[in-house]
Amino acid sequence: MKQFSTLGYGSKSIATLLIFTIFSCCSENDVLLTNDESMLTLNNQEQFDELVDFVMEADSAEMAEFTNTLDFKSLKTIMDEVEAAEEGLLAELEMKYDPEIPREREYAAITKEYLDKEVLRLDEFGIPELNIPIPAFALFLNEEREMKIGDKTVRFSYDDIKVIEPQTMTEIAVNPVERIIRETKKPGQENEKSCTSTSGKYRLITYENNQIWSSGTGVPCSDSRFSHWLKLRSLKKVFGSWHNHKTSALRVKGSVRISHYKSENHGSDLTFIRYMTNENNYFYNLPDHHTATKYFIKDYPLRYGINNECIQYHIKFDYTNHVGIGKNGTTCSL
């Protein structure tokens, strides 16, 4: 059994380099990885929160170090293998055929395998992506998209999060993932959650994600959490369809403030609690890749007060002005 210290999660200090120092004995804050179950095992919800904070901010070096500590293949590793196979297949096809002539899309053998297993799903462009609610979770989930929190097994998918009793494999809770659509009237926006910019063979899509989710049982009251992030995807047109295209040009800028309110009297009265995020005139360079994410709100608990009293909550988008920037002058705003 491996034991990893959770100290340093969420920090960009030197402590993050020692996140997974191996100890010779157990402590309350250790993360336990059991080889017989081939999944990450945490003691409690607090450790899960620390882990989420870490993976949503981890850079490529920290991701690699994290992955190397695991005794099972994480979804991040699986996705890396799928992307490499897809890139290899596309390069092979480009050598055989004229990339300007449309042809039926083909997928690598490993991609088909994981699609059949429901590890992957296809997005609106037919591009494989992981069947999980939040991209960062790929770093700690196994092929079954599972982990343990306390004595419960939690299984994640794009549409819901299930809590399972491990002895009987009974579903204790099925928590639907709620995606909040924030309506805007900005020019160039194709729907309520994304915008697209195309220049020649290159395309940028900027997605805004507002998600309410829970990895618990909802007892004694709602344990829902809220996350807000942007996903940028760089694409190139080959054979008449769009494919991932790696670039160093992905950036985001803008301003965002989202508030948490307590709702009373059936929503007629709102009491301000706090800002969940408040960033004005931000600018971020994103990692060199075809897809990148920037998290503004990680896993904000919608409960409030002493002992997390049960309340009706209200999320207010005071203002959100996100601008995605990509290759070949592609730019669009949400």
Question: What layout of secondary structure does this protein have?
Answer:
Layout: E1 2-5, E2 30-34, E3 39-42, H1 45-55, H2 60-69, H3 75-96, H4 109-116, E4 120-122, E5 128-130, E6 146-149, E7 152-156, E8 160-165, E9 170-176, E10 178-179, E11 194-199, E12 202-213, E13 225-238, E14 241-244, E15 251-264, E16 269-285, E17 291-301, E18 312-325, E19 331-333
Parallel strand pairs: 3-6
Antiparallel strand pairs: 1-2, 2-3, 4-5, 6-7, 7-8, 8-9, 10-12, 11-12, 12-13, 13-14, 13-17, 15-16, 15-18, 18-19
Q: Nearest-angstrom radius of gyration?
A: 21 Å
How much strand? 35-45%
User: What is the H-and-E element order?
Assistant: EEEHHHHEEEEEEEEEEEEEEEE
Helical percentage: 10-25%
* Secondary structure: number of strands: 19
Count of individual helical segments: 4
Side by side, the strands of the main sheet go 1-2-3-6-7-8-9
What is the first-to-last residue Cα distance? 46 Å
- Please state the average pLDDT score: 84
Low-confidence stretches: 1-29, 32-36
Secondary structure category: alpha+beta
Biggest β-sheet description:
7 strands, mixed
- Choose one word for the global shape: globular
Would you kindly provide a brief summary of this structure?
Helix content is 15%, strand content 41%. The chain is an alpha+beta fold and 334 residues long.
Task: Please give a structural write-up.
The strands form four sheets. Strands 1-2-3-6-7-8-9 form a seven-stranded mixed β-sheet. A hairpin with a 5-residue loop joins strand 4 (120-122) and strand 5 (128-130). The protein is α+β, with helices and mostly antiparallel strands. It has four helices and 19 strands.
